[in-house]
Amino acid sequence: MKTPTARMWRNYACGWLAYMLLLAVVLRLADPSQQGYGWRGLVPMLWIVPQALVLALHWPLSGWMERRNTSFATRCLIHGVGAPAYGILSYALPALIYGATQPLSFYVWPVLYAMMSYGVIATTFHMIRANDARRRQEVAVQQAHALLVATELNALRSKLNPHFLFNTLHSIIALTRKDPNAAETALFQFSDMLRYVLDTEKTGNDRVTLDDELRFVRDYLELESLRLGSRLHVDWELDDAASSHLLPALSLQPLVENSIKHAFNPHSRPGRMLIRTRLDARTGKLVLSVGDDGPGADIGRVRASNGLGLRTVERRLQLEYGTDEGLAIETAPGAGFVVTMAIPLPANDKEFT
């Protein structure tokens, strides 16, 4: 694979070669009396080769200026001296070697032309280095942004895990007073859930399949059902085609936990929870929703609350997928509470139909 510098030198050599060919054609057309190309007449053009090699020194010179961060004025001064020196030496040196065959005024325009060539090559090399520096800066900004997102995601997970552990342990403690045998069963259930959490932490892979996340949610609901008994009734409407799609670990469980906390814990009446999964072919998203027939709430108060679960999931979706519409809440006083989470599917996901 060619590096950008190798490509630049290839273009530089091709440019000079094209210039020499163009010059040969022009010289030939300027003297129609010649029959065919006289190779001996083209020999003076070989002087262009050392000129091209000398002008190539602009590359290390521009690199030296870039490393020393020389000012624009200093660069203009260096080239202001270099251009006339190059123009004069380009024609003075052949004159010294072969002897001057023309009057001094003859060399004015060739010297000016050589100075112009110097300026074009110097400007081109400076622009190439400036463009490279801009690209490096863009890459550094992108890497810094990615690092910032990863750091915030880790921080959000660090918040979510203790939140989940605290609430679950609180449920087990409450169950201990009510039914010690059920509490023992809950502890075993809890150990399986901890293994899921620790496995995702250990591998460093934040993505799990929907099947794995649903299995974790079922364990969590079985644990809560030991405490809530017949008050908790869960209906499932699952799309089998969505089971293998990936989503952030511990993204569905906080929605279920939020429903348990607000729709079941404060009340003694039975309640119903509905968990749905589906693939939305129109939007190309994996859609998950958790709803309950609890007391609901004013949507403005929900948005203004300091609750950690939904807010953390919403922020994770924003960071992971760059969307501000990943989490939608439908609720009103007395009308239940439904949270819908939409996760974009990969564009090349062949399993999605």
Describe this structure in words.
This protein is α+β, with helices and mostly antiparallel strands and 353 residues long. Helix content is 63%, strand content 12%. The strands form two sheets. The protein has a five-stranded mixed β-sheet. Strand 6 and strand 7 form a beta hairpin. Helix 6 runs antiparallel to helix 7, helix 6 packs parallel to helix 8 and helix 7 runs antiparallel to helix 8. The protein is rod-shaped and about 115 Å long. The mean pLDDT is 83.
Q: Which sequence of SSEs, written as H and E, runs from N to C?
A: HHHHHHHEHEEHEEHHEE
Shape: rod-shaped
**Proportion of residues in helical segments:** 55-70%
Q: What's the average pLDDT?
A: 83
Major β-sheet annotation: 5 strands, mixed
Radius of gyration: 37 Å
Please state the structural category. Answer: alpha+beta
Transmembrane segments: 12-30, 42-64, 76-100, 106-128
Domain Signal transduction histidine kinase internal region: 152-232
Protein name: Histidine kinase
Domain Histidine kinase/HSP90-like ATPase: 252-346
Describe the structure using short key phrases.
353 residues, alpha+beta, five-stranded mixed sheet, two-stranded antiparallel ribbon, 7 strands, Bact_2-comp_sensor_kinase, Sig_transdc_His_kin_internal
